[in-house]
Amino acid sequence: VCYFAILKKQIKDCVEKKVIAHLVKKTMHIMVEELISSLDTLKNSRELLEGDDEDIKRKRQLQHELKDLRQALNKVQIALTESRTLSKEIFKKKKHDDNESDEEKKKKHDYNESDEDIRT
């Protein structure tokens, strides 16, 4: 029965790790797509600025696009920080859970030894 409990806990930990890894991977993929899009827009904006300095309206539009790009990059940085924080919290929780399970195993072992002493 003890082996099944340990196996069940290991499966649960593995599933949690896979879910977290999937979420982090998906978040990173979205951030990379946003960065690529932002870089393409920035490249296009630079080309337009260099080609037509007299069009003030277009310059303003490009400035707004650059501002939007900066905001998008800030959001990406925030999401990355949050995912790192989440990963750290999960690692700490996992470590704490592992320590608790080690203590439970020790208690069971001590209990089994005391049973053997009583029998003899």
Would you write up a description of this structure?
One of its GO terms (molecular function) is GTPase activity. Residues 1-84 form the GED domain. Residues 91-120 are annotated as: Disordered. It is rod-shaped and about 85 Å long. The protein is an all-alpha fold. It contains 2 helices and no strands. Helix 1 runs antiparallel to helix 2 (56-119). It has one domain (2-91).
How many separate domains make up the residues? 1
Helix content: over 70%
Protein structure class: mainly alpha
Strand fraction: under 5%
* Number of helical stretches of at least 4 residues: 2
Topology of this structure?
Elements: H1 2-51, H2 56-119
Helix pairs in contact: 1-2
Summarize the structure.
This protein has helices spanning 2-51, 56-119.
Give short descriptive properties of this protein:
single chain; 120 residues; mainly alpha; rod-shaped
